[in-house]
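#structure-requests
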Amino acid sequence: KWTMPHLLCCGAAVGLAGRNDSLLIHVLSLGGKYQCGLCHQFTHHGRQNVLDHVEAKHFPNPCGYQCNVCQGVYKTSRALYRHNLQHHRNRVGMGHVKYH
């Protein structure tokens, strides 16, 4: 059973959805495209791509994201997501992430 992952850093736990919601305020909708509301230099038709940009470039996680299967640590939540799809697609618990 998949449950919402929690991100742990400096003793605080935050649901991944809560973190994404807080970053979404920096994603602007421009009639079919989305733009970074912080630097205005990144525009894409996919909202998730702009959200990934906002997280990676403007709010990087200094602790990293740890894979619960192999304990690897990745710089962004998207990098961990891609890692899990490539290496642990059929493993139980692949959706769990936490700050290292």
